[in-house]
Amino acid sequence: MISRVSILLIALLFGASRPPAGPKYARLFTLKAKEGVFAYARISPDGNTLVYASEKRDTRHPNGLGLLETVVDLTSKKILYTENGIDAYWSPDGKRVIYSGENGVSVRDVWNKQTIGNVAPPGLGDYYSWATRDGKDLILTIDSRYYYLNGDKAVQPIQKVKSCDKVGTGERPLISKDGKRITTFVEGNIVVRGLDNCDDIFDTGIKGAKADFSWDGRYIAFHSLKPEGAGYDIQIVDLKEKTIRTLPNLKGSALFPSWTKDGRLCFRYDGPEYRGFMMASNVLDIPTKPLPAAAEPLPKSRTWEDIFPETPREKHALNVVLIWAPWSAHSGIAFDELGQAREYFASQHTDISFASAADPASGEAEIQRQMSAFASPVQRIALAPKGLALTEARNQMPTTLLFKNGVLVDRRLGAQTAEQLKEWIERH
Asked: Of 2, 20, 64, 105, which one's alpha carbon is 20 to 30 angstroms from that of 119?
């Protein structure tokens, strides 16, 4: 007969050998059937409140699209606040959000229901991230500019991320919660580096999207293309151990993760079974893998034939291609603005062609539905995963490529206005 002590020892032995439970997923907030989300959404530090920019069709806007900054109480599913705007990010204390609103750079005190406009001078960039450094609020923008806040006003002088050998300043950064490090893009790779110094630069070698820091600064999370090319996974990189984890068992695309203070991940999910926002807990229970070998750097010289071998190039001096994804709410705006730029250059008789190419990881049915909604006259051309890998479009959708005599001479990450496109193209 087995004694009770033996049974206990056996149970303890088997219990100790059990693998970790792994991540658990919870559905937080379901999007309406035709509701788009403009860029990233952000979870509050305590995980109870979500802010995102909802895409709304609005005939009062020039391109028929309105963008509504929306704050949702996830416990009650009630909307706490809406205003026209984009690119919100929570303050580290979870009381305020900063965003681009009707009165420029705006800060909203969510709980006291007060909004301050014109927080910073215009033209410094949006896509904000918010840190606390040495007890002071610090704001970083997409254009690698940053400033401290005195109350709800920017303190001059406005500063710029330090340029470093080999990596420069990087592009489209996000800041760590302590305000000391940033994630940024360098030649398509996610790179971690100092905000104001060139110490401890770490190139992950991964061509993912914007990477958000955990609250302790040890981890970054981002989405990247699935190995089979059908959708996007959430990746977590351990900056100390130089390892990687992938959120498992997600059939659809998981996009734009952000961390809660207790180590959970909130992300947007587009899948056949659900479309909305989700939360993953126990994410560090996922087994780690070594970081993949660093990808070969993108060739300095790339041609049309390298990226679009399936499509003969129209014989113009300049060729512009918009790479877009149906999961990115920027895409509709990008098509509208590209169309305006196309009309302008046609009126100027410029030797130029315009085309678009859809993200090859997206489903054809969804691509066709979106293209029907866009009703764009711009020709669609084929893009294979191999061609996508030769662009920085995996960092940011949409991305616009500019070819001169068949050679890629420049690219722009993110949706561009018609005026930005005109100025950019005319420089070449």
From this structure: 64
Q: Are residues 175 and 119 in the same domain?
A: yes
pLDDT at 386: 87
Tokens of 334: 């990008």
Report the domain count for the chain.
Answer: 2
What confidence tier does 55 reach under pLDDT thresholds 50, 70, 90? confident
pLDDT digits 0-9 by tens, 366-408: 788 888 888 899 999 999 988 988 888 766 788 999 999 999 9
Per-residue pLDDT, averaged over 410-423, amounts to 89
Residue finishing a domain among 290, 324, 344 = 290
Task: Please check whether residues 175 and 233 belong to one and the same domain.
Answer: yes
pTM: 0.81
Kindly report the CATH number assigned to the domain that includes residue 159. 2.120.10.30
For 350-370, b where at least 16 C-beta lie within 10 A, e where not — what string?
eebbbbbbbbbbbbeeebeeb
- The answer to whether residues 313 and 402 belong to one domain is yes
Evaluate whether residue 50 is within a structural domain.
yes
- The DSSP-derived string for 214-257 is PTTSSEEEEEEE-TTSSSEEEEEEETTTTEEEE--S--SEEEEE
Identify the DSSP state of 39. S
CB 143 within 8 A of CB 161: no
Question: Is the pLDDT assigned to residue 60 strictly greater than 60?
Answer: no
Where residue 392 sits, what CATH number does that domain have? Answer: 3.40.30.10
One-letter amino acid for residue 78 of the chain: K
Per-residue pLDDT band for 64 (boundaries 50, 70, 90) equals low
For residues 260-289, give the mean pLDDT.
95
**112 CB-near residues (< 8 Å, 6+ apart):** none
Instruction: Please check whether residue 243 is in contact with residue 220, taking contact to mean a CB–CB distance below 8 angstroms.
Output: no
Q: Is 173 in the same domain as 254?
A: yes
DSSP at 27: E
Residues 311 and 406 in one domain: yes
Full residue range of the structural domain in which residue 103 is found: 23-290
